[in-house]
Design goal:
heterodimer; A: 126 residues; mainly alpha; 0% strand; flat; B: 356 residues; alpha/beta; Rossmann fold; eight-stranded mixed beta sheet
Chain lengths: 126, 356
């Protein structure tokens, strides 16, 4: 016990843990106020407003250049997603059919006969 | 006196040894590639956009009849279930004789910004449930949901009461969102304009999600780095730290509509708790869940406070229900030392009794 108290490595570890706990506790008190939440969100809204304006200006430039905008590309991506979804469903159906046909591989998998310890002892008695 | 001197010499020797090891291994640490994680053999059973369904190869000679589907939170990668050999919930369950499937998430792409809570609970999970039923050949399954994966599993279970779900386990799953502490304060509707955020960004970026976790414990990252430097001589500690650190840094972005739904329906209106959540026209009342259910919570969870997850068992309609509360935090509940000693054996025992 005395060793533990005087071990510099343990003392350092305790110092780090205490610092972490105190810092977190103090920061959480400050960040848990309505004022903090309000100012953090105001700052975020400002950034978002700037980004929105930039996005709009960029979209207008692309339109003037007769090029697709980000939204056009995203809409295209969404169409591809819906094709992928239908393709996945077709693949799944085909895989099921193939599995049925080949009788895959119930025999290769371990049997699903395991009992929990409580039932195993009952089964043993029977 | 001489014994004291021997002690001092011994301690000084150890200090010198560790200092040398720290410096030598510290150099390696800085140049090492990312930690290897998720090593348990598995196959991809299904993939579509952000969704991945994995099947882990059985490791026991005899399996329980009912397969398990693990549902990961949408904010992080599922390899936290399988960090490293010996530190893997999946490996433990496989060796205990379970057939294990896992739903994992890839970062949603910009064109997946429109995925909503309904897509996750009325399309992704039901599709995977059907895939597990087809692949295993069994008519029912158990679901184990972690954090937000638990919320999605609850909504699925509550809105598919005639489905094949046999057992449900929810690990650190928030139910009463009014008790979400700082997260609730920061996303208060008075100040937080979720519509502006989603409409502008489409997909909520990874650094936004990660910052919102890190701000809950602002000193944690620095303290962990100091701790790992001090313990650089301890290979096991460093290995575990690197795996956790990689996982913590690989937070996922979120689909915008899903984030909007979560904020408005769950965080602001607290509909899951109040029992008036409707998803895609289907009621998702917790009281309609009647399957056996287990809720595991962490006493010192700083992400999902104990009070946020505690009401679950009071709200469900199940008669067979069990609560387990462990010391430790949000992540250590499923991958820390307490998980290895208590959580995994308890989960395996609870599921085993109900998987024949």
């Amino acid at each position: 016990m005395a060793d533990k108290q005087t071990d510099p490595a343990d003392a350092f570890a305790k110092l780090v843990s205490d610092w972490e706990r105190n810092f977190d506790s103090m920061a959480n008190k400050i960040m848990g106020t309505d004022e903090f939440s309000q100012s953090m969100n105001q700052f975020q809204n400002l950034q978002l407003a700037m980004q929105k304006r930039f996005n709009e200006a960029m979209a207008q430039h692309l339109l003037n250049l007769n090029m697709p905008s980000r939204d056009d590309i995203l809409r295209l991506g969404e169409s591809i997603r819906s094709v992928e979804k239908r393709l996945a469903s077709i693949e799944t159906t085909l895989a099921k059919k193939k599995k049925k046909k080949s009788g895959k591989d119930a025999s290769k998998k371990p049997p699903r006969t395991k009992l929990p310890p409580s039932m195993r002892s009952e089964a043993d008695h029977e | 006196m001489s014994e004291t001197r021997a002690n001092v010499m011994d301690r000084a020797g150890k200090l010198v040894e560790r200092t040398i090891a720290r410096n030598l291994k510290g150099l390696d640490f800085l140049t090492m590639p990312p930690a290897k994680v998720g090593l348990t053999p598995k196959e991809v059973l299904y993939e579509r956009g952000t969704l991945r369904l994995y099947h882990y190869l059985p490791q026991a000679d005899e399996l329980y009849r009912v397969p398990i589907l693990l549902v990961m939170a949408t904010t992080n990668k599922a390899y936290v279930f399988d960090l490293a050999p010996g530190q893997s919930m999946v490996e433990y369950l496989l060796k205990e004789g379970f057939d294990v499937y896992v739903i994992d998430w890839e970062p949603p792409l910009p064109e997946e910004r429109g995925l909503s809570l309904a897509d996750y609970t009325q399309d992704f999970i039901p599709t995977c449930v059907q895939m597990v039923i087809d692949d295993s050949g069994e008519p029912d399954l158990s679901i184990v949901g972690y954090c937000m994966g638990g919320v999605l599993s609850l909504i699925y279970a509550a809105s598919h009461t005639d489905g094949p779900l046999k057992n449900l386990a929810c690990l650190t799953t928030p139910v009463n969102w009014a008790e979400m502490g700082l997260t609730r304060i920061w996303s208060d509707e008075k100040h937080f304009d979720v519509d502006r955020l989603v409409d502008t960004l489409g997909v909520i970026p990874q650094d936004f999600v990660q910052a919102s976790f890190e701000m809950l414990r602002p000193a944690q990252k620095s303290a962990s780095q100091i701790r790992v430097w001090e313990k650089m001589w301890d290979d096991e500690f460093v290995k575990s730290y690197r795996a956790f650190d990689r996982w913590g840094n690989e937070t996922l972005p979120l689909a915008g509509e899903y984030f909007r739904d979560t904020t408005k329906e769950l965080m602001w209106a607290n509909k899951l708790y109040k029992g008036n959540l409707v998803v895609n026209g289907k009621s998702a009342k917790l009281s309609d869940i009647t399957v056996p259910i287990m809720a595991a919570m962490a006493e010192h969870d700083h992400i999902v406070a104990y009070d946020a997850s505690k009401p679950l068992l009071e709200l469900v309609g199940s008669e067979d229900k069990e609560e387990i509360v462990l010391k430790g935090g949000h992540v250590s509940l499923i991958a820390g030392p307490n998980a290895v000693r208590r959580m995994w054996p308890k989960l395996a025992e609870w599921l085993g009794e109900r998987s024949v």
